Amino acid sequence: MIELKHISKWVNVGGNRVFLLKDINLTINEGTFISIMGPSGSGKSTLLNVIGMLDEFDDGEYDFLSQPVHKLKEKQKSQLYKSHIGFVFQAYHLIDELTVYENIETPLLYQNIKSSDRQAIVADILDRFNIVGKKDLFPTQLSGGQQQIVGIARALVAKPKLILADEPTGNLNSKQGEEIMEIFKQLNEDGVTIIQATHSEKNAAYGSQIINLLDGKVEKIELK
Fold first, then answer.
1. What CATH number has the domain spanning 2-223?
2. What is the spatial distance between Cα 75 and Cα 93, in angstroms, rounded to a whole number?
3. Contact yes or no for 209/33 (Cβ under 8 A)
4. Which of 44, 102, 181, 182 is the most buried (most CB within 10 A)?
5. CB environment 42-74: b (16+ within 10 A), e (fewer)
6. CA distance 11 to 58
7. φ, ψ dihedrals at 127, nearest 5°
8. DSSP code for 205
9. What is residue 205's predicted lDDT score, i.e. its pLDDT?
10. Contact 203, 196 (CB under 8 A)
11. Beta carbons within 10 angstroms of residue 112's beta carbon
12. How far apart are CA 100 and CA 155, in angstroms?
């Protein structure tokens, strides 16, 4: 599903090249659950953003579902992302001007799903996450934990093939966090590929593979 070959990303600081990712080689098969671990600044979020086509990279090749991402135009990448990837951001990335309902509905608008079907799909996911009562509120009226749950619901609503999650339970209490990880586990058992970046050993343990990053490089890969 995902093939990263010699991926590097850097910034220039005072004439010196500082690597955010260095010579990353990874093959991720469809249906796997991957946990990316490492200290702050190790490149976890950057790697997720590269896989999610939100960040460019400076060197290497990236194939996603047999498409050469490194050769695609911006519009093609955007289409690939919208069709197949759900992203759970650490900082929510909800649209403040839209209600909870409208935020969750947004990914469906890109997929030409007719209005009545969209309503049914959104109603189902509001129910699944116990946020029916919040559907007409705006993000600023929600707590951090509630915003995170809306962000997760939005990532899942279009039934993506791949879910990328950056510290998905970072703003949730332990009970909510456990519920979210169980949902991810169930989705993975249903065939969805999941890649999460996490500091939590407990969350990482849900993965069938743990990739340890250090200073932008893959230090080791553990199979469970």
1. 3.40.50.300
2. 21
3. yes
4. 44
5. bbbbbbbbbbbbbeebeebebbbeeeebeebee
6. 9
7. -65, -45
8. T
9. 94
10. yes
11. 6
12. 13
